[in-house]
């Protein structure tokens, strides 16, 4: 097993005004039926309310602390505005305690880690994260540890943004994004080491279909250790899986994808 050293953490107790309880679902919907499998248990957590919108404009915010968030892979930064309002943001690489960051719609703002700007005011080639897909809706993509997107070009009212998956997508120049790469880059190198750690994270075991009986899964059955047999692998309910593309061919946002993440 391997784990983070938490050397970047400067405060170990969260800001109580920005906490909210989380109700666990166990993968069940409002009817009590399991709609997402392999969810259950896990350590008790409190939700940290993250400011994805960054909608306090042209007000310098001072970084008070870098904290751990059990609900995400990245670290979070506690910032305070001149009116003493505190908010959490996702902490990028290079953001330290006592740094001053700003969110703005103006052009004359420094291109430095943690500043939130309109895409039209960010130079091509800049690494960005926490990107809006719709104006003023708040950052929706590129929010995981170590990830960043890059502005490839600008054309008309859109920016060509290359996402961590390799997809190149058109995003409106009136959408906001935050400068820099998200911190905790070593997250992808962690090793869980034991089944119990997976359960701490709220993930229950996943059983292979070929290990089941025919009654339980289309891949099940056979004498001894037999393969799946089916040349077209399926889910327990007979739907194609293992690489089968499920994206709607008529989805409205298809026109915004310049290059897909898969060839």
List keywords for this structure.
four-stranded antiparallel sheet; 263 residues
CATH superfamily of the domain at 16-186: Nucleic acid-binding proteins
Q: What level of helicity do the residues show?
A: under 10%
* N-to-C CA distance: 35 Å
CATH level-two architecture of the domain at 16-186: Beta Barrel
> H/E element string?
EEEEEEEEEEEEEEHE
CATH class of the domain at 16-186: Mainly Beta
User: What class would the helix/strand composition place it in?
Assistant: mainly beta
Fraction in beta strands: 15-25%
3D architecture notes:
The chain is mainly β. β3 and β4 form a beta hairpin. The chain has a domain of 171 residues: Nucleic acid-binding proteins (OB fold (Dihydrolipoamide Acetyltransferase, E2P)), CATH 2.40.50. 2% of the residues lie in helices and 23% in strands. A seven-stranded antiparallel sheet has the order 7-14-8-11-12-13-15, with no helix packed on it. The chain has a four-stranded antiparallel sheet with strand order 5-4-3-6, with no helix packed on it. Strands 1-2 form a two-stranded antiparallel sheet.
Summarize the structure.
This protein is mainly beta and 263 residues long.
Topology:
Blueprint: E1 19-21, E2 46-48, E3 61-67, E4 76-80, E5 86-90, E6 100-101, E7 116-118, E8 127-129, E9 131-132, E10 139-141, E11 149-155, E12 158-162, E13 168-172, E14 176-179, H1 195-200, E15 257-259
Antiparallel strand pairs: 1-2, 3-4, 3-6, 4-5, 7-14, 8-11, 8-14, 9-10, 11-12, 12-13, 13-15
């Amino acid at each position: 097993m391997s784990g983070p050293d938490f050397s970047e953490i400067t405060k170990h107790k969260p800001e109580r005004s920005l906490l909210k309880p989380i109700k666990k679902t166990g993968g069940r919907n409002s009817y009590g039926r399991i709609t997402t499998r392999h969810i259950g248990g896990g350590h008790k957590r409190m939700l940290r309310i993250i400011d994805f919108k960054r909608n306090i404009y042209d007000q310098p915010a001072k970084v008070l602390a870098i904290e751990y968030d059990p609900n995400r892979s990245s670290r979070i930064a506690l910032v305070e505005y001149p009116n003493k309002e505190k908010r959490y943001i996702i902490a990028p690489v290079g953001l330290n305690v006592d740094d001053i960051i700003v969110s703005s719609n103006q052009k004359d703002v420094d291109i430095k880690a943690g500043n939130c700007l309109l895409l039209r005011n960010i130079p091509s080639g800049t690494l960005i994260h926490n990107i809006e897909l719709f104006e003023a809706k708040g950052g929706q993509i590129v929010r995981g540890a170590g990830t960043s997107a890059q502005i490839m070009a600008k054309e008309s009212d859109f920016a060509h943004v290359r996402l961590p998956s390799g997809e190149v997508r058109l995003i409106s120049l009136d959408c906001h994004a935050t400068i820099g790469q998200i911190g905790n880059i070593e997250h992808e190198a962690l090793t869980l080491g034991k089944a119990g750690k997976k359960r701490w994270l709220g993930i229950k075991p996943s059983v292979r279909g070929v290990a089941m009986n025919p009654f339980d899964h289309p891949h099940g059955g056979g004498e001894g250790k037999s393969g799946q047999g089916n040349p077209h692998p399926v889910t327990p309910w007979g739907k194609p899986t293992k690489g089968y593309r499920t994206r709607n061919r008529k989805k409205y946002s298809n026109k915004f994808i310049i290059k897909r993440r898969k060839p």
